[in-house]
Amino acid sequence: MAQSVFSLPSEILVSAIASQFPCRHEIIRTLITLLSVQANKNIVLYGLNATGKSVITKRVLERLSISQGSTETNLFQYDIIKTAECITTRHLMEKTVNTVADTLGYRASNRCESTSQLVNELEKMLHWSRSQNPEAAASRHVLVFDGIDQQSVHTPMLPALAKLGELVCICTSH
């Protein structure tokens, strides 16, 4: 049975997460809904500091990835890259490649010197992961760049990251 491109979030899931974060029910519902849209490539969360964006996002991703295989959510894995821990753009790209590689169980190159190399490495890892686990062929990998707007070195990589979801594409035949 083909899954719909759009599915509403489970009210039980929304309530379970919202009980931990008072007055954030609508934000949590919106985030879960956006993550449930299979056609979604990029989601930008922006707002005042210390309002809980990062912790709520992490909790939502944890809960959605735990309930893998259920009919209420999409199957996905996720990684959160704390950009404040990265000194240079190259450091950010290498941390991204190594973090995703660790999650997928892939042995990646430790070097990543350009955005095109980042895209190439991500495609190779995701393709390898899907070939290792055919049941996960419809899965997605969510990549969160926490605090990217506060990165000290603004380079052409920032617009490239916005296009990352369009650039990294794994084609599968069914």
Question: In short, what is this structure?
Answer:
The chain is built from seven helices and two strands.
Topology:
Blueprint lengths: L10 H8 L6 H12 L16 H14 L9 E7 L6 H16 L10 H18 L7 E7 L10 H6 L1 H4 L7
Parallel strand pairs: 1-2
Helix pairs in contact: 1-2, 4-5
Tell me about this structure.
The structure is a single chain. With 174 residues, the protein is mainly α. The chain is globular and about 45 Å long. The protein has 7 helices and 2 strands. The model is unreliable at 170-174 (pLDDT under 50). A two-stranded parallel sheet has the order 1-2.
Q: How much β-strand is present in the residues?
A: 5-15%
Broad structural category: mainly alpha
Number of strands: 2
Total helix count? 7
The chain-level mean pLDDT equals 79
* Largest sheet features: 2 strands, parallel
Low-confidence stretches: 170-174
> What is the chain-wise order of helices and strands?
HHHEHHEHH
How much helicity do the residues have? Answer: 40-55%
